[in-house]
Design a protein that fits this description.
Elements: H1 5-20, H2 28-35, H3 39-51, E1 55-58, E2 64-67, H4 76-82, H5 90-99, H6 105-127, H7 136-142
Helix pairs in contact: 1-3, 5-6
Length: 143
């Protein structure tokens, strides 16, 4: 499972919020301007992040977004799930295995390998938080 642009930009935007907002509301044009990301693309990501409970939207003058939880409480796996990057999750592999009859012990063994591989990735990404993506000096300031 390799990170896609969607997952990389989602993590980058959340890291930016953790670094620059100090819990305050931050606008998507601010994030877009700092990183050269399309505002339209960020809007699509933030709809998913909001539905996933990762961010909270604030409407009206001076509106924007703020983190829904403390950065250390938002795992990278949570972010991937929120933006729909769980297509290679262990549950989906199991579903594919049930849909397609495995014809040999080699196919079965190979399938089990990938299932274990994806479980290990999910476990690792669940242990990493947005805080882990920040530069050390930011971690020290916000700790």
């Amino acid at each position: 499972m390799l990170p896609t642009s969607k997952s990389r930009y989602a993590v980058l935007a959340l890291s930016d919020m953790a670094t620059h907002s100090s819990g305050a509301i931050i606008s998507l044009p601010e994030i877009a301007g700092r990183h050269g990301i399309s505002i339209h693309y960020l809007e699509q990501l933030f709809v998913k992040l909001r539905k996933g409970g990762i961010v909270v939207s604030v409407r009206g003058y001076g509106g924007g977004y703020k983190l829904g939880r403390e950065p250390q409480e938002i795992s990278i796996w949570d972010v991937l799930e929120a933006v729909g990057e769980k297509g290679c999750s262990p549950a989906n592999v199991e579903k594919q295995n049930q849909t397609h009859k495995l014809n040999s012990s080699l196919e079965s063994s190979n399938s089990e390998f990938w299932e274990v591989y994806l479980i290990k990735i999910q476990e690792a990404l669940s242990q990493l938080s947005i805080t882990d993506t920040l530069p050390a000096e930011v971690n020290l300031i916000n700790s």
